[in-house]
Amino acid sequence: MTPRILIVAGSDSGGGAGIQADIRTVTMLGGHPMTAITAITAQNTLGVSGVHPIPPEMVAQQMQVCIDDIGVDAVKIGMIGSAATAHAIADVIETLRNVAIVFDPVMIASSGAVLADDDTTAAFGRLMRLATLVTPNCPELVALGGEQAVLATGATLLAKGGHAEGDIITDRLIGPEGEIARWSGTRIETRHTHGTGCTLASAIAEGLGRGLALPPAVERARLFVREALTKAPGLGAGHGPMGHHLVRPKDWPGV
């Protein structure tokens, strides 16, 4: 089976994050990526210069036509753009049954650009209640109200440790009953980290879409991200893209 992964996110003109990173990730892992673009951004490795939101009804229409014809095994939600778009996405998600939903609550780009205003962040609560997994980094988790606030929505939480201090990064998978699993690894020293969050969430969605349970899906996704970081091609003067195209998951034992 080829997992059908619907990606709802913004476009990154520099190709490092957003829809572009999502497509590359799902493709390299063997899934079929479908897209609903929420916003067009003008950005490169140095930062975001402009954002043009897509009308909410067009975002929902992109989602629905893919679902109606091709079907869907998992959905990854990234940059949303507005509260109205968040609710339009939720309206479509609510019609799905037995489909894994991975919500990466994108709020701030690697460059520091704010990608979600207060109204949009407030609307995240509805999406978290529909999500299988929520994948915030440390600052995003604080903005969402902390671990308990996320868990209170009924979603499982992947609390990512990449923004924490120290040479060891620890990611924790937490459910309503407590910690399910944790993974630790040495920090990979590189400035080419653009799109790590997008890539991780899309890789998890691809794993869930092919029938993996959450812990192995997260473990596999972390392996993909770490290998892509080590193979970054060194493009751009700022936070450059990772080397998605150089990762060979089919060579991994047991994958």
TrEMBL record:
Q: Does the keyword Transferase apply?
A: yes
Residue runs in coiled coils: none
> Region Disordered: what ranges?
235-255
Question: Domain of life of the organism in this record?
Answer: Bacteria
Cite the source lineage.
Bacteria, Pseudomonadati, Pseudomonadota, Alphaproteobacteria, Sphingomonadales
Q: Which UniProt keywords apply?
A: Kinase, Transferase
MF GO annotations? hydroxymethylpyrimidine kinase activity; phosphomethylpyrimidine kinase activity
In the UniProt record, does the keyword Kinase occur? yes
Q: Where are the transmembrane segments?
A: none
Report the EC number(s), separated by commas if there are several. 2.7.1.49
Q: What is this protein called?
A: hydroxymethylpyrimidine kinase
The record, for CDD domains, names:
HMPP_kinase (cd01169)
